[in-house]
Amino acid sequence: MLSTFSEFWRRFSVETVPMDANTDATADTGSGTAIRAAVLIPQAMTVNGTAGSDTIYGTDDADVLRGGPGDDHVYGFGGKDLLEGQGGDDSLWGWARHDKLFGGRGDDRLYGGRADDYLDGGPGNDMLRGDDDDDTLIGGTGDDFLLGGDGNDSLRGGGGKDALYGHLGDDTLYGGPGNDNLLGLEDDDTLIGGTGDDFLLGGDNNDSLRGDAGKDALFGQLGDDTLYGGRGSDEIEGGDGADAIGLDPGNDLIHGYEEIQYVFDSSFDVLFDTGAYGPVAITIDLRITDAKQDTGYGNDRIGGIEGVLAGAADDKLTGDGHDNLFLGFAGDDTLRGGAGNDVLDGDTGRDVLKGGADTDLLSGDWGHDRLYGDGGDDYIDGGAGRDTLFGGAGNDTFYFINGLGGTRKSDRDVVMDFTRGEDLLVFTDFETGITFSGTTATANGVWYTLLDDGVLLNIDNDGDGIFDYKVKLAGLTEIGEEDFLIEDLDPASFDLSPFEDEGLWQFLSGDLEF
Length: 514
Fold this sequence. Notes:
The structure is a single chain. This protein is mainly β. It has a 22-stranded parallel beta sheet, with no helix packed on it.
């Protein structure tokens, strides 16, 4: 059949329009430019545009609308539509339902509308907007602009200099090749720059930012963010919140919040070795904020960082006058807290930990470690292995956990400067009912033996009256019950107020994890 519309809709021809209500209608246009499929028949349509600039309207059903080579305007309306701009600079609107829009070649504009839509700009400088629900936007080659809108959207820029905006929802943005701008804005977003010199801004909430290769700029802004610069000389700023910042190869400028500003009420920023490039020995001195330092990954400028998580090599970390968190992990590490209330954890390896001034918490963990509390009232735990412990000045607490000590000279801990009346020995995770029995061996007891150079403590944990654990106190000639605390370790039983209301206390209590 052949139908002709009035001049109001311009001229076009319709071929092979089946009248069966169960069959989709098909329209191939001739030389005209305006096609309203809904006028033709109230069912799904397949429409192919002309070589000119067409305006095509779909139905409320699942239409297939193709613009053709010209600069076209295509509207899907209701239904799960497939819209193709093909050649030319096209504008495609999905409208409602779950639509698929393909711009094709040219500088196209794609609008998803409501529901979960799929938008692919193709070659050219395209503008894609997802609007409502969970959309997928792909820019393709060219300099593209992508806006996710509401919902949890996935945005991929492709090749070119792209601008990606997540807006509302937990969005994932990937810039791809080229120098891209990625903005997460609201909610918990994941931003990946890809190759090229990229700009990444997390916005509100807890975001993950990765620059990848290139000279990137990463800004977490609000929330507890995780930031990786990747290869290249990057600028990284965590912003407000408790942020984790990855240390990668390149000459980086790394600052937690405005270079040297510390806001412990709202932020606790941590720099960590990503481990993505194998064991690299890092050397970091947080006292240096106005000059570059060779960290092992490059000549980096670091400021506003409160903590460092090292890697599997032999690392050297030095704190500043603020409260620092240093985790050495594997390797023979040297951790110096300096002034401030610091938390130092050596993890595995033969580590040296020095708390410095103020109240510090030192843990050797696994390995034969040397721990120095230095000034202040410190909490010192050698962990497993043969550890040498120095409290230094102040009222220090040495604690020992059942199962991590030894009975032989080669694997027992030594406290080098225990001061009676000032320091305290804490034994935890032992059987209940353990009591101090002087120099007499007692089942479920703690007793001491005099040595030429100190006192040897013997602890029986299983009730057979034979020691299961030994600790040496160098330089002492006696010890009394008042020097001990034997119970399950409860941080609330100690004065840990120096760590409260700080990022350090959040870490110790498990509220802050990296």
